[in-house]
Amino acid sequence: MGIEDLVNQGKDFLEKNKDKIEETLKSDQAEDVSDNVLDAAADFVKKVAPDSIDDKVDDVRSTIDSKIGNE
User: Fold this and answer.
1) Which of 1, 19, 34, 52 is the most buried (most CB within 10 A)?
2) CB 30: neighbour CB atoms within 10 A?
Protein backbone atom coordinates (compact mmCIF):
# COMPACT_ATOMS: atom_id res chain seq x y z
CA MET A 1 0.00 0.00 0.00
CA GLY A 2 1.48 3.31 -1.07
CA ILE A 3 0.97 6.87 0.07
CA GLU A 4 -1.59 7.49 -2.67
CA ASP A 5 -3.70 4.58 -1.41
CA LEU A 6 -3.60 5.97 2.15
CA VAL A 7 -4.58 9.43 0.94
CA ASN A 8 -7.49 8.00 -1.04
CA GLN A 9 -8.65 5.96 1.97
CA GLY A 10 -8.49 9.11 4.09
CA LYS A 11 -10.55 11.05 1.55
CA ASP A 12 -13.12 8.26 1.38
CA PHE A 13 -13.35 8.13 5.18
CA LEU A 14 -13.84 11.89 5.42
CA GLU A 15 -16.52 11.89 2.75
CA LYS A 16 -18.43 8.98 4.29
CA ASN A 17 -18.28 10.44 7.81
CA LYS A 18 -18.54 14.15 7.04
CA ASP A 19 -21.63 14.73 9.21
CA LYS A 20 -20.27 12.80 12.19
CA ILE A 21 -16.94 14.60 11.99
CA GLU A 22 -18.61 18.01 11.86
CA GLU A 23 -20.82 17.08 14.83
CA THR A 24 -17.79 15.92 16.80
CA LEU A 25 -15.85 19.10 16.05
CA LYS A 26 -18.73 21.14 17.48
CA SER A 27 -18.98 19.13 20.72
CA ASP A 28 -18.21 20.18 24.31
CA GLN A 29 -15.39 17.65 24.44
CA ALA A 30 -13.77 19.08 21.30
CA GLU A 31 -14.05 22.55 22.83
CA ASP A 32 -12.24 21.47 25.99
CA VAL A 33 -9.50 19.60 24.17
CA SER A 34 -8.98 22.31 21.57
CA ASP A 35 -8.79 25.04 24.24
CA ASN A 36 -6.07 23.13 26.09
CA VAL A 37 -4.07 22.43 22.93
CA LEU A 38 -4.44 25.96 21.56
CA ASP A 39 -3.49 27.54 24.90
CA ALA A 40 -0.37 25.37 25.16
CA ALA A 41 0.65 26.08 21.56
CA ALA A 42 0.09 29.83 21.94
CA ASP A 43 2.04 29.93 25.21
CA PHE A 44 4.93 28.05 23.62
CA VAL A 45 5.09 30.38 20.62
CA LYS A 46 4.96 33.41 22.90
CA LYS A 47 7.92 32.06 24.89
CA VAL A 48 10.16 31.47 21.88
CA ALA A 49 9.08 34.30 19.57
CA PRO A 50 9.57 38.03 19.99
CA ASP A 51 7.00 39.80 22.17
CA SER A 52 6.06 41.95 19.20
CA ILE A 53 4.03 39.09 17.68
CA ASP A 54 2.04 38.18 20.82
CA ASP A 55 -1.08 39.94 19.49
CA LYS A 56 -0.84 38.04 16.20
CA VAL A 57 -0.47 34.75 18.08
CA ASP A 58 -3.63 35.57 20.07
CA ASP A 59 -5.50 36.43 16.86
CA VAL A 60 -4.51 33.15 15.21
CA ARG A 61 -5.45 31.20 18.34
CA SER A 62 -8.88 32.87 18.44
CA THR A 63 -9.52 32.23 14.76
CA ILE A 64 -8.72 28.53 15.09
CA ASP A 65 -10.75 28.26 18.29
CA SER A 66 -13.81 29.71 16.56
CA LYS A 67 -13.74 26.81 14.09
CA ILE A 68 -13.56 24.02 16.69
CA GLY A 69 -15.94 23.27 19.52
CA ASN A 70 -19.13 25.00 20.45
CA GLU A 71 -17.99 28.38 21.75
Assistant:
1) 34
2) 15
Contact predicate 35/66, CB 8 Å:
no
Per-residue pLDDT of the chain (71 residues; tens, 9 = 90+): 788 989 999 999 999 999 988 888 778 888 888 899 999 999 999 999 999 999 999 999 999 888 887 76
d(CA 49, CA 35): 21
By C-alpha distance, which of 5, 65, 13, 16 is closest to 41? 65
With vertex at residue 41, the alpha carbon angle to CA 39 and CA 47, rounded to the nearest 5 degrees, is 100
pTM: 0.62
> Rounded to an integer, what distance in angstroms lies between the CA atom of residue 65 and that of residue 8?
28
